[in-house]
Amino acid sequence: MAVIHDRLILRCHSSQRLKQEGYNLGQENCNNGTKAAIRNKRSRAPNPDPLWPKRKAVALDCEMVWVRNGGREILSISVVDFFTAEVLVDSLAEPREPIVDWRTHIHGIGPESLSMAMSQGRVLPGWAAARQQLFKHINTETVIVGQSLQHDLKWLRVSHVRIFDTAIVAAEAVAGKDFGSGRRWSLKSLCADLLKLRIRKGPEAHCALEDAMAAREVALWCICYPDKLKQWAKRAHKKSRTERPKEADHKKNGRRKVHHSHDGGEGNVVVPV
């Protein structure tokens, strides 16, 4: 465990990289005192306390809904211990703002599911309660592992600097540290390519717990098998280079002119191929 933890720490991303990827690393001040400013204030995890030891690393994933104010809110949160795979948090959360899009087609959670869980007392009262559940298990020295965590942490209103993002790790492996705004590999594709593991099998396939577990497995693989990661990266880089000309040709030829009769005459109509 100590060796893997040391490797995990070394592979955490720089502040510059995290900022480039949209992570918020500082606690924001609410100088204007508006409700929006207070609502969007970011908080850091508790500082280390020898009397209250926390987990050295956790894997995190959340599912979201769109709400009336134009943002998102947490609908479910899952947190697992990175080293033991112990499930620390796996709960639904009741959004505080009116929901305008449940995104049920993505995660399978709808009004009925939430109402049933609420009747059984299995729902957290909003994103702040979800964040508090996370903070029960982490401090500022905990490494948070996940896929594209900037989105999860944004809507949990959390600022954190010790991050192992599997999307960044894969992109850097293929294109180097200066990969910029290039391709990002999805968690599903990383599981298939690296682990030969199929996730999200159903039509409403996103599950916070499954994704947290999957991100944990991908991260462990990247840490334990750096040579295999390099080999995959070479293949992926070669494949992406061969695909670029095809994509360019497709974009170039993706629209063509055809003659279409309209009101007795002919006109040029652009039709996508």
From TrEMBL:
Tell me the protein's name: RNA exonuclease
Do you know which InterPro entries this protein is assigned to?
Answer: REXO1/3/4-like (IPR047021), Ribonucl_H (IPR013520), RNaseH-like_sf (IPR012337), RNaseH_sf (IPR036397)
Under the heading CDD domains, the entry gives:
DEDDh_RNase
Q: Which Gene3D superfamilies match?
A: Ribonuclease H-like superfamily/Ribonuclease H
Sorted alphabetically, the keyword list is: Exonuclease, Hydrolase, Nuclease
**The keyword Nuclease is assigned to this record:** yes
User: What processes does the entry annotate via GO biological process terms?
Assistant: ribosomal large subunit assembly; rRNA processing
Task: Give the Basic and acidic residues compositional bias ranges.
Answer: 242-251
Q: Which PANTHER family match?
A: EXONUCLEASE, PUTATIVE (AFU_ORTHOLOGUE AFUA_7G00870)-RELATED, RNA EXONUCLEASE REXO1 / RECO3 FAMILY MEMBER-RELATED
Keyword Nucleotidyltransferase applies: no
Q: Which domain of life is it from?
A: Eukaryota
Query: Exonuclease domain location, by residue?
Result: 56-228
Using the UniProt annotation, give all residue ranges assigned to the region (Disordered).
235-273
Q: One cellular component GO annotation, for this chain's record?
A: nucleus
Question: What GO molecular functions are on record for this protein?
Answer: exonuclease activity; nucleic acid binding
